């Protein structure tokens, strides 16, 4: 049950529940009434409330934060599943060909195992966070390297992973329903996804094998393309068990009205569905309502087996300035937390502050800077990322230009919206959802470029802030 707000709009601090937890912990430590402490916690945390509905409630975790006591305590108290945020990606696990490094991911896996949490593996084949040695391989070599990577990583964690995101983000945004250009797509063709799933099934037959993507949360051209792929896989016996819906939302990309219907149509193909990277920018009751709607949609779909939020605290979110998570920077539960717990059928006797948020101001003194990085490179294409950083004052919007060398064509742009000059070489980019930045905070947009014979790098112009 939610506590009434006081005059300042904030709920009283969560003393009763926290006190109960402290008491329960003390009892546990004394190894006396274990059964009582378990039942006291039964519907008082996200993980236990979700368990009451036969679901897990997970979070992305970064190994580098596990040593922070408030981070680990919140993780251990609230969540029943984890996804390593970056530590299982190709650049982390096989930075050099055939040299595997599992240290950071192992840390998360052993922490999760010691707490009885499920583990989602993220991710085996993705165009991003791909070491440059992979992008440079010939088709034959790339096929061998992809299958070897899947096999080695999955066998290392064999028996420990609930579900693997075998292939991540293979489709383009927009209305084309086409595959995204990537070393895998460009060199191995459409069959690379099927091959990856077949290799994965052999490597760890007990792990659920998922396809995971973003902007597929409602019925649209992109989700239709994924739907058709899953349908085709099921009809031909290609091993696929689940589809992940990342669910990164904000005001420009809100929770779609057909979210539940979309989850359901995939489930009806005979796969599990999971909400894999949930975060919703905003604050207060609007954010809480959106979170609640997402949870209710999952619970209404029998084959929606669990939900994962993309981080614990706003302070470490990949888009921190949008305050998209359930706990604020001081680990206080936000209204969104209460809403999620309530939607899961749990009960909270408190809930922290109101998360009032507020705008970032902008106006006088608003400045920004931009920098360019090439994040992946292959024979006829590359991925670029431009980081936009606010100066010493908050900003509410930004604009910058990227000028491309002759012949190059941008095939995909994400986290920004573009307009072009008459010559088709100067791209002016504005934010989509990511215009508000706190002082010193940054965001980034990215793009995939077809080189068309010209390997030079683009030039970024100046950044204009409002
Ligand atoms: O760890 C290094 C640090 O040593 C270095 O000083 C610093 C300088 O930039 O970079 C740090 O690595 C960053 C890493 O996050 C850890 O913070 C990388 O630059 C940065 O690119 C990386 O961003 C991750 C992003 O994926 C990369 O694409 C985010 O943390 C992670 O949340 C995000 O997650 C993705 C999912 O995997 C797929 N779906 C979208 C989602 C959000 O973008």
From TrEMBL:
Keywords: Carbohydrate metabolism, Glycosidase, Hydrolase, Polysaccharide degradation, Signal, Xylan degradation
Limits of the GH10 domain: 40-343
All residue ranges annotated as the CBM2 domain in the record: 361-466
Residues annotated as signal peptide: 1-42
InterPro entries from the UniProt entry: CBD2, CBM2/CBM3_carb-bd_dom_sf, CBM2_carb-bd_dom_sf, GH, GH10, GH10_AS, GH10_dom
An individual GO BP term: xylan catabolic process
Enzyme Commission no: 3.2.1.8
Any Pfam family matching the protein: CBM_2
Top enzyme category: hydrolase
Reaction catalysis annotation: Endohydrolysis of (1->4)-beta-D-xylosidic linkages in xylans
Residues the record marks as active site: 277
Keyword Endoplasmic reticulum set for record: no
One GO MF term: endo-1,4-beta-xylanase activity
Gene3D superfamilies tied to this protein: 2.60.40.290, Glycosidases
Recorded family membership: Belongs to the glycosyl hydrolase 10 (cellulase F) family.
Protein name as it appears in the record: Beta-xylanase
Species of the source: Streptomyces spiralis
């Amino acid at each position: 049950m939610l506590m009434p707000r006081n005059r300042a709009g904030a709920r009283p601090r969560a003393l009763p529940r926290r006190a109960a937890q402290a008491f329960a912990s003390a009892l546990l430590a004394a190894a006396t009434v274990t059964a009582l402490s378990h039942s006291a916690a039964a519907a008082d945390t996200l993980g236990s409330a979700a368990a009451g509905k036969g679901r897990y409630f997970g979070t992305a975790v970064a190994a580098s934060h596990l040593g922070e006591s408030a981070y680990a305590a919140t993780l251990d108290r609230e969540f029943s599943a984890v996804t390593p945020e970056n530590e299982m990606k190709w650049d982390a696990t096989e930075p050099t060909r055939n040299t595997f490094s599992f240290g950071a991911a192992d840390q998360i896996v052993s922490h999760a195992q010691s707490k009885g949490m499920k583990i989602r593996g993220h991710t085996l084949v993705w165009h991003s966070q791909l070491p440059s040695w992979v992008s440079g391989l010939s088709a034959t070599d790339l096929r061998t390297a992809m299958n070897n990577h899947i096999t080695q990583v999955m066998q290392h964690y064999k028996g420990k992973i609930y579900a693997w995101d075998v292939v991540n983000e293979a489709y383009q945004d927009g209305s084309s329903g086409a595959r995204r250009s990537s070393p895998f797509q460009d060199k191995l063709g459409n069959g690379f996804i099927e091959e990856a799933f077949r290799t994965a099934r052999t490597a760890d037959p007990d792990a659920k094998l998922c396809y995971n993507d973003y902007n597929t949360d409602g019925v649209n051209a992109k989700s239709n393309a994924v739907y058709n792929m899953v349908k085709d896989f099921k009809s031909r016996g290609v091993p696929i068990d689940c589809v992940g819906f990342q669910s990164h939302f904000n005001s420009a990309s809100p929770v779609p009205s057909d979210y539940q219907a979309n989850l359901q149509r995939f489930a009806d193909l005979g796969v599990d569905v999971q909400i894999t990277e949930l975060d919703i920018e905003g604050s207060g009751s609007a954010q809480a309502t959106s979170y609640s709607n997402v949870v209710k949609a999952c619970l209404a779909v029998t084959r929606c087996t669990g939900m994962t939020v993309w981080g614990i605290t706003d302070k470490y979110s990949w888009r921190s300035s949008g305050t998209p998570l359930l706990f604020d920077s001081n680990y206080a539960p936000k209204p969104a937390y209460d809403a999620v717990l309530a939607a899961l059928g749990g009960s909270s006797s408190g809930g922290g502050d109101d998360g009032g948020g507020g705008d970032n101001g902008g106006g006088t003194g608003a400045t920004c800077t931009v920098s360019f990085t090439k994040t992946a490179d292959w024979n006829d294409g590359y991925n670029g990322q431009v980081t936009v950083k606010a100066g010493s004052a908050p900003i509410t919007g930004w604009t910058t230009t990227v000028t491309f060398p002759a012949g190059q064509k941008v095939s995909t742009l994400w986290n920004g919206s573009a307009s072009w000059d008459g010559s088709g070489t100067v791209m002016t980019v504005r934010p989509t959802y990511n215009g508000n930045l706190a002082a010193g905070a940054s965001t980034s947009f990215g793009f995939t470029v077809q080189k068309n014979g010209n390997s030079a790098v683009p030039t970024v112009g100046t950044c204009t802030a409002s």
